[in-house]
Design a protein that fits this description.
Distance between the termini: 27 Å
Number of strands: 0
Low-confidence stretches: none
Radius of gyration: 21 Å
Helix content: 40-55%
Length: 88
């Protein structure tokens, strides 16, 4: 899991919420005293979200090809999630 990317996206969402609320009523206790500053906070938060989305996810592969499902294929992309298979 790419914790840096996830952290950037969540931080961007929280700061975007603070910026949007500050457009309606500036949140002085957060240091946002004007609506212009609220707009700047909302705009900067979009940069945080974009940076988190652009970070690459790690590719995962099976350790050994135990079944034909685990063999690499040209028709299927490399997995970027962490799906686990188990035998029963």
């Amino acid at each position: 899991m790419n914790l840096l990317g996830v952290g950037l996206v969540y931080a961007g969402f929280v700061t975007a919420l603070a910026g949007i609320i500050s457009l309606l009523r500036p949140l002085a206790f957060l240091g946002i005293h004007t609506r212009g500053q609220g707009l700047a906070v909302a705009a900067c938060s979009l940069v945080l979200v974009a940076a988190g989305w652009l970070l690459p996810a790690r590719a995962h592969r099976a350790a050994a090809a135990a079944t034909r499902l685990d063999e690499p294929s040209r028709s299927t992309p490399r997995a970027s999630g962490s799906t686990r298979r188990s035998r029963r």
